[in-house]
Amino acid sequence: MGSGKTKQAGSVLDLTAYVPALITFVSNKLSRSASALYRREFGVGIIEWRIIALLAVEPGITASRICQVIGLDKGPVSRSLALMEREGLVEVRAEAAHTRRRRIALTRAGRALHDRIIPVALERERRLLEGLSPAQRRALVEALNRLHENIAAVNQPVAVPPAPRRRR
């Protein structure tokens, strides 16, 4: 019998070197484990934690700013904010000049939750980066920031090869 591998026509991705896949794999695994941990220990999932962390850095921002920074769609952010408001973790206030624009901030309870989670998040980061030298860590952060800057270019239209014609 063969090795189970079949010869395919055309190119295939090397998933050990294809950067979008590697970033996705790491991100998905980090998010899934963080969400399980944060939900079990703190009663919030990863989306809520990301919002809480952002609000600690940028208090009084809008939901659209949260979506822009975190890179999530409006629906999950809106659902999370509604849940967090019901739980007393955030406060949503309309702007005086623009009543449709709402500013979001952590409540005391939200800030207290942030302060409980942050050491856990930082310990998870420490473990992730274990084995990297300080120079490698700086280079990684620099590279990730550069990749983040390149997202707009990645999302520009790209030439798509035509589909092969079907035989009848």
Task: Give the SSE order as H and E letters.
Answer: HHHHEEHHH
Q: Spans with pLDDT under 50 lasting ≥5 residues?
A: none
Number of helices: 7
* CATH homologous superfamily (4th level) name of the domain at 47-152: Winged helix-like DNA-binding domain superfamily/Winged helix DNA-binding domain
Q: Tell me which oligomeric state these chains represent.
A: single chain
CATH topology of the domain at 47-152: Arc Repressor Mutant, subunit A
Could you tell me the strand content as a percent range?
A: 5-15%
What's the CATH architecture name of the domain at 47-152? Orthogonal Bundle
Helix content: 55-70%
What's the rounded overall pLDDT mean? 92
Strand order of the largest sheet: 1-2
Explain what you see.
59% of the residues lie in helices and 6% in strands. It is globular, with a radius of gyration of 21 Å. It starts with 18 loop residues before the first helix and ends in a 14-residue tail after the last helix. A hairpin with a 7-residue loop joins strand 1 and strand 2 (102-106). The protein is built from seven helices and two strands, in the order ααααββααα. It has a domain at 47-152: Winged helix-like DNA-binding domain superfamily/Winged helix DNA-binding domain (Arc Repressor Mutant, subunit A). Strands 1-2 form a two-stranded antiparallel sheet. The chain is mainly α and 168 residues long. Helix 2 (46-57) crosses helix 5 (108-129) and helix 3 packs across helix 4. The longest helix is centred in the first third of the chain and has 24 residues, at 19-42.
